[in-house]
Amino acid sequence: MQMVQRALVFCAALLLAACATTTETQSTWQTKTGEPRPAFAHLFVVVLSESAVTSAAVEQQVSKSLAKRDVTATLASATLGGESQQAEQYKAHVEAAVKESGADGVMVVSLLKVEERDEYVPPQVDYMPMTSAPLYLGYGPYVGYSYSAVYQPGYYQNATDYYLQTQLYNVANKKPVWQAQSRSMNPYSLKAGAEGYAKSVVGQLDRDGGLKR
């Protein structure tokens, strides 16, 4: 029975790994030498996208990651709505919304580029549950299920990577103070990509000391 449980845990781990989206983030502070680096307790989050659905999905995931660190988030998609606006008009609305929210920082996320590549998926062995072993084998490790190994050959697949830029502004002086570039590698869905990006960029900002605890 213990072998069966281990096999089930292993299969579940493989499934979770296959569903996860890998995101890499590199960051840098933009404050001058000797200038104090701010730590934020409330961020106004703006995701610039042609799709209101995409903006809302990414902002919501960023909000969840910030909430886990006890940092408040106000989302542009919830505050301003998804209607199309001219650049100057949108800027004025954002500035007014930031002031009204009481946020001490503004996070602006934009798409830098989309890159397609060929990705090699290495061969793997899957273990498929088969019928129960004969009863005469007793209570050994084969009781319950036995597993048959199925070989899957390696192959190439098309992968799409998304490069995002995150700019953080200090509301007190409206200056940029922190910037990050993220690469989200072949997300299998919008939710997975948004979640992977949010965890990566918020985690990096936290490690850099940019979140007030």
Query: Strands of the biggest beta sheet: in what spatial order?
Result: 1-8-7-4-2-3
Please describe the biggest sheet, giving its number of strands, its sense, and whether it closes into a barrel.
6 strands, mixed
Average predicted confidence as pLDDT: 83
Number of distinct helices: 5
What order do the helices and strands follow?
Answer: HEEHEHHEEEEEH
Task: Label the structural class.
Answer: alpha/beta
Rg, please?
A: 23 Å
Low-confidence parts: 1-19, 139-144
Q: What's the overall geometry? A: elongated
Q: Can you give the helix content as a percent range? A: 25-40%
Distance, first to last CA: 45 Å
The number of distinct β-strands equals 8
Portion of residues in beta strands equals 35-45%
Keywords:
213 residues; 6-stranded mixed sheet; disordered N terminus
Can you walk me through this structure?
The protein has 213 residues and is an alpha/beta fold. The model is unreliable at 1-19 and 139-144 (pLDDT under 50). The protein has a six-stranded mixed β-sheet with strand order 1-8-7-4-2-3. It has a two-stranded antiparallel sheet with strand order 5-6. Helix 2 crosses helix 5. Helix content is 34%, strand content 35%. It is elongated, with a radius of gyration of 23 Å. It starts with a helix and ends in a 6-residue tail after the last helix. It has helices at 2-19, 52-67, 76-80, 87-101, 190-207, and strands at 22-29, 42-48, 72-75, 105-121, 124-129, 147-152, 155-170, 175-185. Helix 2 (52-67) links the parallel strand 2 (42-48) and strand 3. It has five helices and eight strands, in the order αββαβααβββββα. 25% of the residues are buried.
